[in-house]
Amino acid sequence: MPSLQPYGAKLASLRRALGLTQLELAARCGVSERTVRNAECGHPIKRSFLEFIAGGLGVSLHEIVIPSCEFERHLRWQRHVDRLLGALQRVVTEHDASDAIELAHSDVRLRAETHMPNFSAARVLAGEYRDLAGIERYVANAFRFWELAGESDNYFVEAPIGGGDVVVIRGGQQFRCDDDQLAWTSTLYVCEFEQERLLRIDQFLTPGEGPPADLNHPICSPPA
User: Fold this and answer.
1) Given this structure, which CATH class describes domain 3-66?
2) Are 41 and 11 in contact (CB under 8 A)?
3) What are the distances in angstroms from CA 151 to CA 94, 156, 223?
């Protein structure tokens, strides 16, 4: 795990403002006193340890870290993730695509591939969609897809992966197929951003095997 360089003097100031010694902060954060001491001296510290220290001080990680190219790249990726998941949450639970459309670049391109031979409802999604008008057409097709496939409260989204301006999201949902049997579908989104706007999306819909065994807390949850 990469190390980051903290603002040593700022860390010490925040700790003193809370009335804590280095040892007390270490105990609160679950790190060693030496780690706190090194951080306050401005020495590079493992990212995970700095996250613990930031939590113990009640601040965000970026407030106590000197920016670097790698760190800025991660922060940019995290912004993309947060906005994408928020938009996906609204689309799936509320059928409201306004956030997704607002997020899109004016030259956005979306390609949707479906490989579900026993699930004809999915075919309405397949195709290439360009610019904002195309995204609106895709949204209309997505709503049509839900009309044909029926509602499903059984779905999940795995933790995103990627970095910088590329976010990969994998999820799944259970639907009733053409033979009237319930089956899981797996959806993969590969999303590319340009200047904070969603420029390209590749979507792949394939047969799924259900939620991963280690998925304890789905990122998106169906409405109560």
Assistant:
1) mainly alpha
2) no
3) 11, 14, 12
Cα distances (angstroms) measured from residue 107 to each of 67, 110, 129: 31, 10, 10
For residue 133, give the amino acid letter. Answer: A
Domain residue spans of the chain: 3-66, 71-207
CATH no. for 71-207:
3.10.450.50
CA dihedral 62, 64, 69, 74 (to 10 degrees): -30
The pLDDT of residue 220 is above 80: no
Reduced to 3 states (helix: H, G, I; strand: E, B; else coil), residue 65 is strand
- Coil/strand/helix, residue 187: strand
Pairing of β 104-114 and β 127-130: antiparallel
Whole-prediction pTM value? 0.70
Asked if residue 34 has pLDDT above 50, the reply is yes
Percent of the chain with pLDDT over 90: 53
Q: Which run of H or E residues covers position 112?
A: strand 104-114
The DSSP H or E segment spanning 198 is strand 197-207
CB atoms closer than 10 angstroms to residue 82: 11
Computed over every residue of the chain, the mean pLDDT equals 87
How many CB atoms neighbour CB 159 within 10 A? 12
Encoded amino acid at 176, one letter: R
Over residues 71-80, the mean pLDDT reads 85
Q: Give, in order, the Cα–Cα distances in Å from 186 to each of 9, 28, 168, 208.
A: 48, 41, 13, 5
Q: CA angle at residue 204 from 201 to 210, to 5 degrees? A: 125
Element (H, E) at 170: strand 166-176
